[in-house]
Amino acid sequence: MARAPKYSKERGPMGTWIFRIVKTGVIAALLGVMVLGIFVAIARSEIDSFEDLKASPNGQMIRIRAADGTVIQSLGPSFGRWLTIDQLPSEMKDAMVSVEDRRYYLHPGVDPIGITRSVYVRTVDGRWTQGGSTITQQLARNIYLNNNKEFGRKIREIILALAMETKFSKDQILELYLNKVYFGGGAYGVDAASRRFFDHGAEDISLAEAAIIAGLVKAPSRYAPTADAKAALDRAKVVVEVMQDAGMITAAQAANVDLAGVRLAAEAPQDSVRYFTDWILPQLDGLIEETEKPIDVWTTLDLNMQRAASSAIAANVPSGAQGALVSIDRDGAVKAMVGGTDYISSNYNRAVTAVRQPGSAWKLFVYLAALEAGYRPEDMVEDKPVEIDGWQPKNSNGNYAGEISLRTAFAYSKNTVAAQIGQDVGTDSIANMARRFGISTPVNTQPSMVLGTSDARVIDMTQAFAAVAAGGRTVTPYGITKVTTIDGELLYAAKPSSAVQLVDDWVAGAMTDLLQSAVATGTGRAANIGRPVAGKTGTTSSNKDGWFLGFSSGLTTGVWMGRDDARRIGGLEGGRAPAQAWAAYMRVAVAGRPVEKFATEVTFPEALEGEDTLLGADEMLLFDENGMPIEGAPLTQGPDLDPADEPGPEPLDDAFIDRALNGRRD
């Protein structure tokens, strides 16, 4: 006989089932807590110490500054100075806690209220629109995890956050967070963000600036001032309202926050200054040993001159050609550098890397050797047909002027006279003079070398002309004045280089005499800028390269134009576009400098009849400076150009590709 089931007098069948469910739930919860505790304990043992997290490698930040202190380029992940919790401004701490984790000081690393709100919004909207992550969870994610929205990752994040809360104090967690979180624009940590967006350290941050920075964490790429200044300010208004609502600031303080008055740091230019920064950055390895601390590199670059240089090249370079410019102050400081018409489309630095034939600009060394050998500007020479070992140099216009002074021969760039000088003083002496004045590329000693058939770099040629301007003493180009840590610790300071006398000062003075004549009455007349100028043009075979180099008021500038594939460019004579670009730049560059007369007293030669073709007055040039016939009209564009010579996309020859890839091919 079956027994009837016994029921408790205190509860019926339903009560028993409820009791069992509750009991099971409690046991499961206890087991869950135990398992969670085990995972948290394991995670706690694997978390780095506070000091290790502070010292974790961040990557070195390098900021390059112009002469006036303006940041012109930032490299590497931007990590500023580490600020302790006591050094962090209260405005910054309050703003961040208000907008990111209002109950930060109340929860154990995970905020149940925040999670509940996030789940509720997800249920209503059908998608995740609000996050429930605490500051501790964000820190755990930033250090150990990623941003993938996966359930498993979220569980690991919670475990790590709970473990961190058992290992570190609230102040330690907040210190780590504010020094490591990403704020956009490449800046990690509030100090880096403050320097990136406001150009000063976080210890001097204002309430308005703190609101801007605190607003960036939600979406750094969208709200960063460098990406969208208006969006950053609009987001900061929300932060101020949240701070007031959280009781961190009063209504009066909120009303007095002047977001519109915040001065944002100027955005670093991304075009021609990059040629300059590409040039100086490799030099750091030989100047400093610091590879971890954030550093500031202070340079010689003058932004006003740089803008003028970029404009001058862009406005005067012939269609289809490239241009380069280097400008050196009397002490060697590089004030401007342009390595091409557009850095974005071509970062190949033609100012310091490309080697091109300088044409008659090379006659600087020919005449320096002649002067050192005893020639004088007033000496008479004969412009006549010359043949040397089968080589017959010709003048640009095909004419011969007969007996003229050395000064006149130089002013009108007479090739036959240069050839005779080379034969007299010896091409070895001229090559030695070129190397003495800083030409670092190989120099040939063939008879035609007097017309500039040896390759040279723009910066080397400019350095040579600067040495003449300095009275025959060496001038060493440099671009870095000092290197400091962002705390101001001096790591390197440039010292004046010891000048070496390359030629007697009277030789340099006589050379300056000749260079003045070339600008006053000769091939360089387009370089007149209304004050004393000394300079020289250069044009190579069939107008493949055009140069003008010269100095005035203590500033020496070299300009080159041509195509990377060395094809002919009509109208590229040094006395045209390069001289015009030089003048356009120098008018701006020396505008604030006193007019300086040269020490030499010059009697300028009279204009030679029929020499205007050197300046492009006629329709057709007969010969280039190497005595080679020039085909077609000298115009950049026109009906007389062969279709093959019309400017267009620049084909890259094998030599150029090898240079650009440093000899590496796929």
Write up what this structure looks like:
- By secondary structure, the chain is α+β, with helices and mostly antiparallel strands.
- Helix content is 38%, strand content 11%.
- The protein contains 22 helices and 15 strands.
- The strands form four sheets. The protein has a five-stranded mixed sheet with strand order 2-1-6-11-12, with helices on one face. The chain has a five-stranded antiparallel sheet with strand order 8-7-15-14-13, with helices on both faces. Strands 3-5-4 form a three-stranded mixed sheet.
- α5 crosses α7.
Radius of gyration, taken over Cα atoms and rounded to an integer in Å: 36 Å
Tally of separate helices: 22
Distance between the termini: 93 Å
Output the structural class: alpha+beta
Low-confidence stretches: 612-666
Major β-sheet annotation: 5 strands, mixed
The total strand number stands at 15
Fraction in beta strands: 5-15%
Question: pLDDT average, as an integer?
Answer: 83
Portion of residues within helices: 25-40%
Principal-axes shape call: elongated
Strand order of the largest sheet: 2-1-6-11-12
Short description:
This protein has 666 residues and is α+β, with helices and mostly antiparallel strands. The chain has helices spanning 13-46, 50-55, 90-100, 112-125, 135-144, 151-167, 170-180, 190-198, 207-214, 220-223, 229-245, 251-255, 273-280, 303-316, 363-372, 406-411, 415-425, 427-436, 458-469, 505-520, 577-589, 654-660, and strands spanning 62-65, 71-75, 78-79, 182-184, 187-188, 295-299, 322-329, 334-338, 380-383, 402-405, 480-485, 490-493, 534-539, 545-552, 555-562.
